[in-house]
Amino acid sequence: MDFHISPGMIDTHFHASVMQKKGLDAVMLLQSAFDAGLSRGIDIGLTPSDFAGRKSLLKDFPSILLSAGCYPSETERAETISLLTELEEILEKENPSAIGEIGLDWHWDYGTRKQQKDLFAGQIALANKYNLPVLVHNREADDDVVDILEAVPPKAGGILHCFSSDYETARKVVDCGLYISFAGNLTYTKNEFLRTTAAKLPIERVLLETDSPYLSPQKRRGKPNHPGHIGYTYEVLSEVLNMEMEVLILRMDKNFRKLFSSGS
Fold first, then answer.
1. CB-CB contact of 160 with 181 (8 Å)
2. How far apart are CA 241 and CA 201, in angstroms?
3. pLDDT of 263 over the 50 cut
4. Using an 8 Å Cβ cutoff, are 87 and 51 in contact?
5. How do residues 239-252 score in pLDDT, each as one tens digit?
6. Which of 9, 76, 79, 227 shows its CA 20 to 30 Å from the CA of 244?
7. Of the given ranges (2-6, 11-15, 121-125, 194-198), which has the lowest mean pLDDT?
8. Per-residue model confidence as pLDDT tens digits over 98-156
9. Quick one: CA torsion of 187, 27, 160, 137, rounded to 10 degrees?
10. 3-class SS letters over the chain
11. What is each CA distance from 144 to 54, 105, 192, 194, in whole angstroms?
């Protein structure tokens, strides 16, 4: 496997268990990434029932935080109240570092839109109860995501991950107290609009991720993605901002530590 990473880089969103399901050796890849310089990372939950397996898989990585949450597709598995009850049991028992991946997905239209909205708002309420940041998924639902973030503000902040919308949406999300995280799609040739948005945002509200095993960066399109590729996205953001890589790495580290130590 190829790696492109420098010491101190952070991957704020990946799915180790999904990497495993796609035939990747997530433990080996993560160990190699840390050996190459990866500093911190967050492994993302999709359903309350995945937490135990993910915790076991990553037991030897103290620098990896674990989130717990109900992805929008969970609306097709159970009623909102049952899902929130399942999630709260994990919050009480396991003390994860964040609630996510949560949000809205109008591309696939899981369940009904009301179910997705109720589940999203309910999980933000749980995050506020437990003083945890939220990790937000948004696919083709800009206005509704913003409306819920404004109606139920995440008190401990959070991240809108894998940003793929316009600057106006990004600005509104930042005004709600969240960070904007860019993934490998920032590097895609056709996505100049994302690079323009990244250049206009306050660097104090930006983070970077791989979303492994999805969204391999431009130079690795068609190959499995993993946290060892995070450097490609750092590289593009460094160019967009005309910022030295060492300075960018320190800035991302500061942003990450601020969100996951003392809130937003």
1. yes
2. 10
3. no
4. no
5. 999 999 999 999 99
6. 227
7. 2-6
8. 999 999 999 999 999 999 999 999 999 999 999 999 999 999 999 999 999 999 999 99
9. 100
10. CCCCCCCCCEEEEECHHHHHHCCCCHHHHHHHHHHHCCCEEEECCCCHHHHHHHHHHCCCCCCEEEEECCCHHHHHCCCHHHHHHHHHHHHHHHCCCEEEEEEEECCCCCCCHHHHHHHHHHHHHHHHHCCCCEEEEEECCHHHHHHHHHHCCCCCCEEECCCCCCHHHHHHHHHCCEEEEECHHHHCCCCHHHHHHHHHCCHHHEEECCCECCCCCHHHCCCCCCHHHHHHHHHHHHHHHCCCHHHHHHHHHHHHHHHHHHCC
11. 30, 10, 25, 20
Query: Residue 84 contacts by C-beta under 8 Å, 6 or more apart in sequence?
Result: 70, 119, 122, 123, 126
pLDDT digits (tens, 9 = 90+) for 68-79: 999 999 999 999
Q: How far apart are CA 239 and CA 246, in angstroms?
A: 12
CATH number of this structure's domain 10-262, picked from the four choices 3.40.630.10, 3.20.20.140, 3.40.50.2300, 2.30.110.10: 3.20.20.140
What are the tokens at 113? 């839109």
Average pLDDT over residues 191-210: 98
Residue-range domain boundaries for the chain: 10-262
Residue 79, C-beta contacts closer than 8 angstroms, at least 6 positions apart: none
Q: Quote the CA–CA distance of 226 and 221 in Å, as a whole number.
A: 12
d(CA 59, CA 222): 30
Q: How far is CA 37 from CA 32, 33, 69, 234, in A?
A: 9, 6, 28, 13
